[in-house]
Specification:
With 495 residues, the protein is α+β, with helices and mostly antiparallel strands. The chain has helices at residues 149-165, 185-208, 221-229, 242-255, 257-260, 278-285, 322-344, 360-374, 403-407, 423-440, 452-459, 463-473; strands at residues 3-10, 13-20, 23-30, 41-50, 55-59, 66-69, 74-75, 84-85, 104-111, 120-122, 127-128, 132-135, 141-143, 173-176, 213-216, 234-239, 263-265, 289-291, 297-302, 306-312, 348-353, 381-386, 392-396, 446-450, 477-481, 490-494. Among the domains are: 3-35 and 220-278, eRF1 domain 2 (Nucleotidyltransferase, domain 5, 2-Layer Sandwich); 288-407, no CATH class; 423-494, Hypothetical Protein Ychn, Chain: A (3-Layer(aba) Sandwich).
Amino acid sequence: MQQDILINWSPQETRVAVVENGAVQELHLERPMERGLVGNVYLGKVARVLPGMQSAFIDIGLERAAFLHVADVWQRQPDGEAPMFARKGELLVPIEKQVFEGQALMVQVIKDPMGTKGARLSTQISIAGRLLVFLPQDDHIGVSQKIPVAERDALRGRLQVLVGTKESGGGGGFILRTNGEDSTDAELAEDIAYLRKTWVRTKEASLRLPPMSLLHQDLDLLQRVLRDLVSEQTQTIRIDSTEQFHRLRAFGQEFMPAAAGKLQHYKGERPIFDLYSIDEDIARALGRRVDLKSGGYLIVDQTEALTTVDVNTGGFVGARNFDDTIFKTNLEAAQAIARQLRLRNLGGIVIVDFIDMVRPNHQEAVLAEFRKQLARDRVKTTAGGFSQLGLVEMTRKRTRESLAHVLCEPCPACQGRGALKTARSVAYDILREILREARQFHPREFRVVAAPPVVELLLDEESAHLAGLSDFIGKPISLQAESAMGQEQYDIVLL
């Protein structure tokens, strides 16, 4: 699999596209005014403790207070053994005995604010480096689960020796990242020193800065490209800004020389995203319908609680029989759904409604293909089997807003419902409202200000009802069309 990374930079927005075999698989966006918070460390102030929910709200200086659950509180056992988290359903120490209102508490953001929800926090601090993740409150030495099992013990032993022989700092645990599998001892030692220095600076800041201060900020998107997105499959990293190319190359040569060697400055006349029609892919990713090459299509609906994906055959009738048609459509859909989850950055619970298949072997093949495609995702996913209703339930870890939430906002006309009341429904609402007002007030005249389609309907098809209401209340009713109003908007003015 060949992978290319394209970076489109402008002062107001950075866009990164991960392209595999000519198709866009992931899109990352960052705006200086809306930069994500995951990984940031704050000195928070406990605003409220809720024993009934075993959680607390922490003020870290944002518009909404952040949320800390007891399962994310790093606890030390009474006998002085190694610290650990409270497992679900097994509370070691209730939250009200660990934090109190007004307390200053060092916390790290593990989920960005989403919709009406504030950021989610943890008191376990982890600082990511190029090759390692540093856990300053723990002594655990671990290895990424993505590294083959056969190699983990040897790598863990190497890391244990390096951590034990470091003279500077001391203490803390480390987890070897996937891209550190083939690193040398010198590279690992450099990363250990860098991470410990970063932690020392963070601790010093917590002692001199007031609560609700930012103590440590994660790398920006350009730097995270080299740290998190580059893999062995990455052929090139092309960026269209001269200034940012030199900045990123300097950063890469210091911390990630292998990744920096893949950097290229794109000087073409065409916009860099035009190379793979990425803007067109973005536009399609914001729509509900995703067309498949076979003629079938997907319908993707995103709600606050979950995302549903419905698979339809559409105009695909090319197979020899109906069962084969359904099977081939579902196989293609399995690939397309996995790609759409990555491209749209859909997280949480996902329900997939594949077309019903009669043969068990077809179900097994589709499920195997779906899991195979999901395995390529750098974000953690879990997929169950087919339920009794023929649905596949899965989850995808959500740490930031989806593409639609980043680029779009609810429609002001329908308030995000996706549908408007008909002009006739609004006209009847107006008639009822006039009757209600007439029982409370006695003006000289009622004037209705509404959208042109509603006024036109009241003057034409509903004119008899309007005249009848005027006679019933004994007051004249005048109409005024206002083109700036939405179809559901209206005002009734008492003159």
